[in-house]
Here is the input.
Amino acid sequence: MILCGVHLNMCVLGRPFAIRQMVKLGKHVALMRDLTDTMYNPERPPGVSHFQGTELVIQHIEKYWCPSFTSSDLTGKPPTLNIQKLDGSQMSARALAATATKLVVTSVELDDLPRIGASGPVYIYAVPSWVPRASFLPFSEASFLNER
Here is the structure.
């Protein structure tokens, strides 16, 4: 189970569907650390910058709750890449499925996804085995990535 979002020190860690509870329920959990942020006021203890405060919370989670990874570990793109729009035609079928993508509409011809339609220069591809944004799966149906 991959968790991300805001606010890491509140909802992502403490809500009933969040890291602490999922770990207590025996779920295999990981934090996608570059897709989260904290609610932190640098004027309050420990008196560090907002970014350092977020890093401290990530360190706490890694020490006591679950491992973390970055989106570049999933997409294979450089960690310095900062785009606000992901181009599904450049992502692997596995990454698309893991990010809850059902369809890719693009002008690029793809060979790793089944084409389900086209109109002029636009192609529509289905993403096999996509995972809904939020769902509970029986353990027997969960897939686990290698630790490498």
Observations:
- The chain has five helices and six strands.
- The chain has a mean pLDDT of 88.
- The two ends are 17 Å apart (CA to CA).
